[in-house]
Amino acid sequence: MRCTIVLEFDDGNATAVRRVELMRFHRADCASSGDVGLSLTEGKSLVNCVQQEFVEEQVSRYCASQQACKACGALRRVHDGHSSELKTTLGKVFYCRDRWKACKCGADRSRYVSPLKNYIKEASTGELRWLHAELGATMPYRQAKQVMDLLLPTSGRDSHVTIRNHTMAVGKYLLHARPVRRWCEERKPIAELGIDVGYVKRARSNHKGAGKDNRAEAYQSSSSIAVVVAALGQSGKQPRVWASAMPRTKRLHEEMMNFLEDSGYNDPNEVCVVTDGARDLAGVADNLPFDTEWVLDWAHIGRMMRHVDQAIAPLAYGRLTADGSVFELWETFVRFRSDVWTGQTVRWQNLAQTLFRLLELRKELDPKWSRAAEQACDKLLNLVCYLNSNLDSLIDYRTRQRVGLRIATGFVESSINRIIGRRMCKSQHMRWSRTGANSLVQVRVALLNQELHELAQRDFPWIGQRRVSWPWQKPSRPF
Q1: Which residues, 6+ apart, have CB-to-CB distance to 105 below 8 Å?
Q2: What is the mean pLDDT of residues 151-159?
Q3: Residue 52 counted as domain residue
Q4: CB–CB of 163/89 below 8 Å?
Q5: What is the pLDDT of residue 136?
Q6: For labelling, which of 119, 125, 426, 453 has a CA lying 20 to 30 Å from the CA of 283?
Q7: What is the pLDDT of residues 101-120, one digit of tens each?
Q8: Are residues 15 and 116 in the same domain?
């Protein structure tokens, strides 16, 4: 069996202008079992040949439409030309890049005219660059190159460095790009804004001017890059995410405010900020123009509560005061935890003093548990200091949870894991520069917000479109 693939180009009126015999496929009549259809290698060869002929025809027709002078109508003469290459998603293709002599009427205002100067501006198509960025942000660059070589025709001398450069370029574009749509409603509900920080390893500095000891000291002092991540959305719905790896400057706060404005929540009365009160977030929190309440992350409080619980549990049994019960220490801690949960500040502060006093009595009455009691005191002290330093952010968590609002930054931490952890640090022995980390983060945020393809189509409207005249799935005969 032999199958001949023929391309036919016309002017749109079914009149054949040019026919090209593209490729022939051969199969033996007694084929081996399972040898059905085209193989992947044959398919890649076919689409690459179709791309080559298609580009040649498009370029020749475009040049033919531009060769006549718009002022006088005279045809420009060809001065010279050279073969050039264009990298596409369906492989590398070659075309002739001509240069014409300027028209004698003087309308060109130059000596020579390059018709393809504004038609083919880059050595690669926009679709290929955005595909490189999407794969480069999803998986390591070398692995992305292997996937593209496996499924698509080769684009020539491309390597993992090309994928990295395209990913960084798209990330820098996304950093300054406005969203294609506003994420707001006519009636905006109250939303929670969660803020947290993730860390990636910083690339080592190779500055030759600094001494060996100074370079080591600088590396130890700044061995990681802090990435601020903010998630905004209603409880129970997928939040919209923003992230930045740049330093805590005024520009970062302006970018966060632009993110809130683009999301439709620039009014401070409609946003409730949920954070864990970390020192790294103090500058970000103070610069946001919100006068509403700040909610301290209950998950962080609960984690510290669990540490105190585990330290007190071995010491719980035993009467410590004359009018106390056998489990006086444990019962006091349970009341203390309940008062923190319900936002009773004065009561849990008094109970904290009682807990310290009971732990001191425990050390005096039973010396063999003195070390365990000291450890319990240290953990309780850390918890109480943390709560006292964030008194303004403590609320009635029980009531807030009952009405269906968020009380923890779990939705932000999951976003950090998806944006930073899976690609940039967890199980990945990588180090990043601040600019590179910020560019990659922007692409991953656009993917998480499902905005990457919309942003690509804004500059390249043909990306993702299928421009055909009849269904491509039409069978050769009815069934």
Answers
A1: 69, 71, 72, 74
A2: 83
A3: yes
A4: no
A5: 94
A6: 426
A7: 998 888 888 889 999 998 99
A8: yes
Among residues 1, 17, 85, 9, which one has the least CA distance to residue 50? 9
Domain that holds residue 306: 299-393
Q: Are residues 75 and 134 in the same domain?
A: no
What mean pLDDT do residues 25-42 have? 84
Question: In the predicted model, what is the mean pLDDT of the chain?
Answer: 84
- Contact status, residue 411 vs residue 239, Cβ threshold 8 Å: yes
CA 318 to chain centre: 54
Which residue is it, tokens 């010396």?
Answer: 367
- Flag whether 184 is in a domain: no
Share of the chain above pLDDT 90, in %: 42
- Tell me, yes or no, whether 117 and 89 share the same domain: yes
CA distance 216 to 266: 44
Assess whether 42 and 132 both reside in one domain: no
| Same domain flag for 9 and 108 | yes
Evaluate whether residue 372 is within a structural domain: yes
Largest distance between two CA atoms of the chain: 113
Residues 114 and 153 occupy one common structural domain: no
| DSSP states along 328-378 | HHHHHHHHHHHHHHHT-HHHHHHHHHHHHHHHHHHHHH-GGGHHHHHHHHH
Domain limit, last residue, from 176, 197, 212? 176
DSSP codes of every residue in 147-215? HHHHHS---SS--HHHHHHHHHHHHHHHHHPPPSS----SSPPPEEEEEEEEEEEBPPP--TTS-HHHH
Report how far residue 195's alpha carbon sits from residue 285's, in angstroms, rounded to the nearest whole number. 9
Question: CA-to-CA distance for 406 and 376, rounded, in angstroms?
Answer: 30
Phi, psi of 242 (to 5 degrees): -135, 145
Residues 102, 26 share a domain: yes
Query: Is 60 exceeded by the pLDDT of residue 194?
Result: yes
Q: Is the pLDDT of residue 479 over 60?
A: no
Q: What is the pLDDT at residue 263?
A: 81
> What is the three-state SS of 80-112?
EEEEEEEEECCEEEEEEEEEEECCCCCCCCCCE
Is 34 buried (19+), middle (13-18) or exposed (0-12) by CB count in 10 A? exposed
Same domain, 89 and 144: no
Instruction: Name, in order, each residue with C-beta under 8 angstroms of 83's C-beta and a sequence gap of 6 or more.
Output: 94, 95, 96, 97
